[in-house]
Amino acid sequence: MADEATQELQVTPDAVAAGTTHVSDEVVEKIAVAAARGVPGVAELGGDVARFFNAVLDRVGLDQVGDARRGCTAHVTDGAAVINLVLVIEAGHPVPQVTDEVRIAVASAVEAYGLRVDEINIKVDDVAMGSPPPTA
Asked: What value does the CA radius of gyration of the chain take, rounded to a whole number of Å?
């Protein structure tokens, strides 16, 4: 067996099977939430009701339930995504700056997966007053 030669199989584009690929809305939502959370000035994602239910889940030990997509909805059609985010901004951070940075981060993250982003709509639902303002 040690004398057997190993052959390398070349895969050419002609050898790839045809078919379609669909990326689910939920996948785009998870990518968008992860990217948005990494932007300075974003305190949380989700509206008042979602944050309330998340606080209840935290108290009963289910703190990870729903976190991956909370505050985000996405709709993917023909490889293009429309993304809606609900943010809580940290006090002292300019809303236009934070939302612009969120759009850049989310678009970059989603496009890295080979999708096009047509829209990123952002609703700022609240300001987190407990956070200290940024220092200059």
From this structure: 21
